[in-house]
Design brief:
Elements (H helix, E strand, L loop, with lengths): L2 H11 L4 H21 L3 H13 L3 H13 L15 H15 L3 H21 L2 H6 L2 H18 L3 H12 L15 H21 L15 H5 L33 H10 L8 E8 L1 H7 L7 H5 L2 H11 L9 H7 L6 E5 L1 H6 L6 E7 L4 E6 L12 H14 L4 H12 L10 H10 L6
Parallel strand pairs: 1-2
Antiparallel strand pairs: 1-3, 3-4
Length: 440
Amino acid sequence: MSLTKQLVLLIRSKPVTTADLEAASLFVLDALCNAYAGRQTEPADKFLRWFSSQGQEAGRQAFTIGALTHILETDDLHKASVTHPGCVIVPAALTVASRQNASAIEFLTSVLHGYEASCRIGNAVGPAHYRIWHNTATCGPFGSAMAVSSLLGLNVEQCVDALGNAGTQSSGLWQFLETGAMSKHLHAGRAAEAGLVSADLAALGVTGPPAILEGNKGFFRATCPDADPGAVLRSPEEPWQLCLTSIKPWPCCRHTHPVVDAALELHKKVDGRSIERIEVASYQAALDVCDRPQPTTEYAAKFSLQHCVCTALLDGHLGFESFGPEQRRRLAQYGNRISVSRSASIEAEYPGNWGGSLSVTLSDGSRHTASRTDCLGDPEYPLDRAAMTRKAENLLLFGGWDDQRAQLRIKSILELAEGSADETLFTTIVDELLCISDKG
């Protein structure tokens, strides 16, 4: 039996509790509010113009909503797989739920299934894959295919076909980071679209390779030098992978968050005018992606350990306004005072724990330190329902919504877990996200 088929059977045999549905509704809320807020950006204008010129079939809808969800860098992240599942799974499931007039419970269950497939495969790719490949883009199509297969009611063999054809479209390279290109948004969109199209085709009998994961010319052999195929099926008794996923409180790369949290702790203890030296210790993947001493664009600043640490240390907060040209100019003076390095002990815990440490030396010779093993928003240090609701409110306000309208939309999404949502909700949300005449 192929690894893909075993994965499908594992996912479909996992029980879904009321608590699981409630958790799924919170992650759906986070993803959709990220998409609403993402509409207010320059990249969103480009993706929405592209969508309006292409016609409104389901794949393009999922693609565009996926791109919008990933723009602001505040969408969720699954640590072990190093994937952002929400920006791929939720757009694909939303699009098909709207088309199929799915029930709230069917939709949330499909989201749980999608996260499980994407994250379990991501758990197996190995660290070497991530150095070149963007895991959200490569593992995401499996998740969107699994979610849509659930909504379409595909049988096991059809679902295997869907995942096989999704996997053969797996792609997404980190090269965009060198210039701050917008390809990362495209990665999320394409992963959502690829899985949706693969499941639609499987429903029509288009077959896919069952051994797409472990085959001699399959995904692991092609892109994963140190793959751990056993991780795909390991610990089936664990909670749903969605429940092991982190929510990001700060609008910057998650690799910066451990030391951002540490810097926020030290904010009240240090005077920025007295800082002589800042030393950051992290794991190699964080350095590979986020060692950027002098970021020259807003997007690069979100991927700069140096910029994010200095902002948190000096301002005591990171918001959407923390990465613009004025802020970059203000913090440039600290560029020659900050160093980043790899810590062997922190590296040994990654990716199970995304840790970091920070040491600040002042002009009087005093030294202040702080460290983190886990980040705010991780399952070990989670945002509660109230905090997630506040985050959603802030995202919608950034997206141009007034408070009353924002509260109504948040309530309608959270009601999905009760199975009592308005039957037109999915279509309404799709229309709101893809409308180009009203940016609010």
